[in-house]
Amino acid sequence: MIEKTLCAAIRRLCAGGALLGAAALAAPAQAQAPAPAGASGDMQKVEIVGTSIRRRLAAQTALPITSLRADDFAKQGLSTVQEVLATIPMNQTSTGASQSVGSGTGGRATADLRGLGGDKTLVLLNGRRLANHPFFADTVDLNIIPVAALERVEVLRDGASAIYGSDAIGGVINFVTKRSYRGMEASVEAYQPAGSGGGDEQRINFTGGWGDLATDGYNLLGVADFHRQSSLTATDRDFARTGVRPERGLNQTSGTTFPANFYSEKGISGNPSFATGCRPPYSIPNLSGAPNCRFDSTQFVDLIPLTRQETFLGRFSKKIGADHTGTLEYLHSRSTNEARVAPPPLAGIGLTMTSTSPFYPGAGITPAVAGLTGEPLDVSWRPLVTGKREGLDVSLTDRLLGGMEGSFGGWDYNLGLSYAVGRARSAFTDGYVVDARIIEGVGNGLLNPFGEQTSAGNDYLRQSLLQGEYRRAKIKSGAIDFKASRELMTLPAGPLGFALGGEFRRDEADYRVNRALASQASSSGAADSQDQSGSRNIGAVFTELNVPLLKDLEVNLAARYDDYTDFGHSFNPKVALRWQPTKQVLLRGSFNKGFRAPTLYDLHGPQTTTNTSNSWNDPVLCPGGKAAPGANPNISCDQQQNIRSGGNSQVRPERSRTYSAGIVLEPTDKLTLSADYWDIRLKDQISELAEESIFGDYQKYQNLYSYNAARTRLDYVLAIIQNLGEVKTRGVDLGVLWRLQRGALGNFTLGVDGTYVDRYDYQNERNGPFTVNAGRFADATPVFRWRHNATLGWTRGPVNETLSNRYLSGYDDQPDENGVVPGRVGHYSTWSLAGTYTASQKVSVTAGVKNLLDDDPPFTVQSTTFQQGYDPRYTDPLGRTFYVRATYKF
């Protein structure tokens, strides 16, 4: 009941306005009438995201908040937290399971409000921090959120560094779990794509609650949730099955292939199978006219890897007297991710064949190649018989929290003590090979890189497979926090609210690499990684003051002081204004400053060398796509190059300023309209320089290129974490919520929640030129001009129906290396339909269809992910998907 009243008050007094999000629109909030005089003393005090002051419902402040109810997004078939956040238009990008394919993310899922980066979106659980994912230590892995335990999700779309801390520049996402639950229930969900292949999902969860805080003085809550999604391969979807579509300008292939390409010391390069057309469908002739073959590695990748999440949340709450409640909470989560990419590319590792090999071209088994006279050959080979490279990532999170809250001496207080540990590990499970054994096998004539293997060769390759755990990481975070609030006095216009609080936290991060294993496989991306570790202490104090200047005008002032043992201190103020001149109109605005210190990974993350996402011409050894004298075109031309990334102890903090202004109109009780303008400026952005920038301007970034002593091979380009330049972005959030007149046909609601980005410009270095990103693909990502989520809901008796539309506007596609834009990427619009039948208080069933019209993702030539033909960061490759969910309450 408190939740419903709160949501209504937020809507009525515009502390969230109409921007309730698609999931909340299916069931309308009821208008909250102004409290009669003298009634405020009986109203429940609550605290919402964005403020530390607990106040009565009739006096809630105005904040740009989106609220999503868990019951509603469950009915819409949103099976993961990442899917839920994808319905929030201001969440520009997201990282999920698809991005773990070949990229070493550990399978984590992240949010990214305003497109500023996931490290500037603060994720909370019940108002408190969680441990970040160990591999990058910059964002919370959304996979650890206990979906089945959620009551609602609150999204503060305004910067909140003054309240929550330095990493709230883009906004705050607060996942709120059930506070008190009594009874037992079990839910079963199943998702089945209409298209062939995998991608099906299953979920089962159990919830049990005993005792009632109000009557029994205690409550025990336990939630267990299990989710699994099978893998979907590229060959299961026509739009993503290949990286070769020359008629659309897509030609993403590798120069490391089977049969192997070679290069001789006389400058001759080629492939013995080129004359007969290579070996399609994987190996195809080079479209540039060079006498070698290219490899379509896209056909081997997963669009969606096999994933599993298991989460448990247990909480015991006990009333202590009439005014205090103690809580003990434990969260455990385990997430696994099994991803597959093409067989290992073995190039530039000293793989040499001599004329003594029976497989040397012209020796009787392999076709001869004109010009070869027995000189040694440098071979670029991909041994298909070893199979796809498969990796396993396992992430575990444990958090123990003890808390006390209540009222004492006129103060509302909340005190917490928490300890969280995050662990992650990565392992080779199949397909990776020991480089030294392959070099030896080719050198002694046992292995045939140009054709089929002998039985002895197959046995040798099987014995050359590399398996085992090659890296692990741990992050520990212990914290104590407190906050207290009260009404200091009653001014003529209302009560003066005051809050203060503090936090002390110690973070420790440790990265370990099994070099004995990782160093044996150049294709692992961790062959030269080093162990790293770091720690820091963080102390903070903050205060907040809510001043009613006039009856309908109030100002909120906040400030926070943070002190880092490794970066000094920072002071961040915030001011917000709320004016409601009439019952139907509310005006609001805010200004705040932000500060984000580098994470422990930014500073101490291990530097590793791996392949670039795209294929590039080495600007020195292959200028203009033509190999320079003495350069091996198989590793220098149109090939994935080596890129070295990782932490940098010289990184400085980021700083930001944000201001916003909005208006909310409610001409009738049935219609709410809102518009909120926001403007964000970020300085000294912490990030890696995109490979597109490095290879796109050699003259500017030549200091980042590292060659061997003879300058015959590019060892790597350096793209470690550093301070780039500024980011400037602005736009407007728009919302409509229309509660149609109730009648014999039932209750209808119509809602639209949208974000328009007017500007998104950034610099790749301080004082450098600005790159325009809004409405176009720049460097590594696009920024959508317009995104919306629209929902039409209908309820009649035990039946609820929801029709929803998710829309992303089109943009200019990724330019080629000459800066030429190949065309436009079309808009992405999907419709979904769901219905819920509540048969009784114990049984309810939901059935629906996601992507009702079975629309494919729009085509793009983007090359920043392993998947090709579409962009998995914003679109869903599954197509039309049917789902059913059944819940039984005991």
From TrEMBL:
Transmembrane segments: none annotated. Residues 631-653 are annotated as: Disordered. It is a multi-pass membrane protein. Residues 633-651 have a biased composition (Polar residues). Residues 1-31 form the signal peptide. Keywords: Cell outer membrane, Membrane, Receptor, Signal, TonB box, Transmembrane, Transmembrane beta strand, Transport. SUPFAM superfamilies: Porins. Residues 60-172 form the TonB-dependent receptor plug domain. Residues 407-852 form the TonB-dependent receptor-like beta-barrel domain. The keyword Amino-acid biosynthesis does not apply. Belongs to the TonB-dependent receptor family. This is TonB-dependent receptor. It comes from Massilia aquatica.
